Amino acid sequence: MKIEELKYYRMVLTRMTCRRMLLLTFFILHSSFFIPANSQCEYKITAFNEGETINYNLYFNWQFIWLKAGTASLKTTPSEYKGQKAYTTSLVTSSSKKIDRYFMMRDTIMSIFSDKLTPLYYRKGAREGKRYYVDEMWYSYPNGKCQTTTRHIHNDGTKSVEKHLYQQCMTDMLHAFQQFRNLDTSDWQKGQTKNVSIAGGSEVVKAKLLYRNKKTVKGDDGNKYPCLVISYIEKDGKKDKEIVRFYVTDDSKHIPIRLDLFLKFGSAKAFFSSMK
Question: Residues 48-84: pLDDT tens digits?
Fold first, then answer.
């Protein structure tokens, strides 16, 4: 591979890291299902009662060249939070040795939610190149509303804190993924769309989900899986722009088997490799 091509991959990884690739999709999977806060934020857990670990291989493509960019592991275990039963989900991503020479990435993201899927705490610690930062978010539910307190620790060690109050349930990226997996999608119809409201601090992004069809998809484990094919679409001026297309198992667990991202230059994919 030419040096110029490797430099290009460094630029791509800077703009769209493997962590962002997975988390964007996990966040998208739930964000159109916001409902009134407090008790209505609760869901019955059916997808991972005993805990699980899901592994992925991450790839980038440019001009017909595929490069394995790294791996990711999503782990969910029963736990406790401030004396109550809870679940802890963690996503760990790591760039490959070949990529490390140009752009090292070591990210750990954690989300804690109750045994009824109510979000409680979120933390992201990310090392990307020479930059390291930490984001944290605490949830509370005063008077039937959802309040979030976020703290950002910058690369220079300085801190910033924000508080926001919402009328509806809010979510972090990992918690959103787990909520989606416990939804019933049996009545979804081809061509059906769902509006998406993504909270990002004081900003809300308006987008939509489009259910395309069903397709059998092969994972990196060599197995084939019946999947639902869903696109996440944002507005680009007056036009719709597809950001990511994801393939989740057509069953009660909704495990992402393949993720396709459409970048300005080239494309990126993530493939399911194993689960336990």
Answer: 777 899 999 988 876 677 888 888 888 999 999 999 9
**pTM value surpassing 0.85:** no
User: Tokens for 157?
Assistant: 């060690």
Q: Spell out a b/e string for 74-86, using b for 16 or more CB atoms within 10 Å of the CB, else e.
A: bbbeeeeeeeeeb
CA distance 22 to 56: 9
Question: What is residue 104's predicted lDDT score, i.e. its pLDDT?
Answer: 60
In terms of Cα–Cα distance, which of 122, 92, 118 is closest to 22? 92
List Cβ neighbours of 100 (8 Å cut-off, separation of 6 or more): none
Q: For residue 243, what are its two tokens?
A: 């950001």
168 DSSP 8-state letter: B
Q: pLDDT band at 105, cuts 50/70/90?
A: low
Q: Which amino acid is at 170?
A: M
CA distance 215 to 270: 17
Q: What is the dihedral of CA 100, 18, 146, 193, to 10 degrees?
A: 170
| Contact status, residue 56 vs residue 257, Cβ threshold 8 Å | no
pLDDT band at 198 (very low <50, low <70, confident <90, very high): low
Asked whether 142 and 128 are in contact (CB, 8 A), the reply is no
For residue 118, the SS3 value is: coil
Q: For residue 90, how many C-alpha atoms fall within 13 Å in the half-sphere facing its CB?
A: 10
CA distances from 269 to 7, 25, 70, 90 (A): 19, 11, 11, 20
